[in-house]
Amino acid sequence: MPPAFAETVPAAGALSLLPDDELELLLLIRHFELELLDLYGRGELNGTTHTCLGQEYIPVAVSGLLRDGDFVLSNHRGHGHYLARYRDPHGLLAEIMGREGAICAGVGGSQHIGREGYLSTGIQGESLPVAAGIALHLKRTRPGAVACVYIGDGSWGEGAVYEALNLASLWRLPLLVVVENNGIAQSTPTSRQLAGTIAGRAAAFGLRHLGIGSLDVTGIRAALAPALALVRLGEPLVAEFAAHRLGPHSKGDDTRSAPEIEHARAHDWYQRYADEHPQQFARFDAAQRERVRAVVAEVSARPPSTWDGS
């Protein structure tokens, strides 16, 4: 199970009514991920994919605090990170399907995407030392900008993570480390592969830690905004979310027990928001489902992407 935080941003309380465009973004990510799983199930996609079902609210909350000059680094479960930053479902799906108009000409696929101000990788822990280097560059050339890097609880078994945190603390880098702790590292429960706590490991390097158990985008931003303001001044932060992964690790490899899966579903923002704000939710949920289906139809009809290696 993900960690339970006694302090900082608790899980209890109603979900705030969101502006329409932010609810649209949450629902866009949810239905994009569901369509990907459906496409794989029909044999229309190659390779692999890792959906962020259940975790969509995290990049939506974080991205609302980022500026154009900030840099975002993602991971293998990064579709939501990209969509929250760019709102570009056509380009992302074209990349995954290898179709014309793809972000990286179709050679990056689901996990490896590069765009100005954005980079993702499928290698666990790799993005954090890269983020530290980018944060150093931003500190020297673009004061006030931050490098925001998303990692999971499983990445805390990689030595490069600790080397990066050490330098971030020593050099006072403008680095925001967003930890999506969903309680399971592929198929291994975090409790069986991570000694101590992530908060304790951050403290060992003199880094600030913010624990977030809430699903409320508005409340998360209210707590994270002042902490992020200090990151821009050179005080790095580890913001750890107690998240819940609804879907499998990849396409269909879910080794969790039925009670564990049901626990994750019981903590899903999607159903809670539908229950608490039914009229707004009903208006936009169906619209975003149809929007994504239209994206799938349009991108599927495109010719294959071509790349000359340059």
The coarse silhouette is globular
Biggest sheet architecture: 7 strands, mixed
CATH-derived topology: Rossmann fold
By DSSP, the count of extended strands is 9
Contiguous uncertain segments of 5+ residues: none
Under the CATH scheme, which class? Answer: Alpha Beta
**Helix content class:** 40-55%
How many domains? The number is 1
- Report the C-alpha radius of gyration, rounded: 19 Å
The CATH superfamily is known as: Thiamin diphosphate (ThDP)-binding fold, Pyr/PP domains
Number of helices: 11
Give the termini separation: 45 Å
Derived structural class? alpha/beta
Cross-sheet strand order for the largest sheet: 2-3-1-4-5-9-8
In short:
With 310 residues, the protein is an alpha/beta fold. It has helices at 20-41, 57-63, 79-86, 89-97, 127-141, 159-170, 198-204, 217-231, 258-266, 269-276, 278-300, and strands spanning 71-74, 114-115, 118-120, 147-152, 175-181, 184-185, 188-189, 208-212, 237-242. The strands form 2 sheets. Strands 2-3-1-4-5-9-8 form a 7-stranded mixed sheet, sandwiched between helices.
What would you note in describing this structure?
The chain has 310 residues and is α/β, with parallel strands linked by helices. It has a single domain, classed as Thiamin diphosphate (ThDP)-binding fold, Pyr/PP domains (Rossmann fold). Helices cover 44% and strands 12% of the residues. It has eleven helices and nine strands. A seven-stranded mixed β-sheet has the order 2-3-1-4-5-9-8, with helices on both faces. Helix 2 crosses helix 8 and helix 4 (89-97) packs across helix 11. The mean pLDDT is 90.
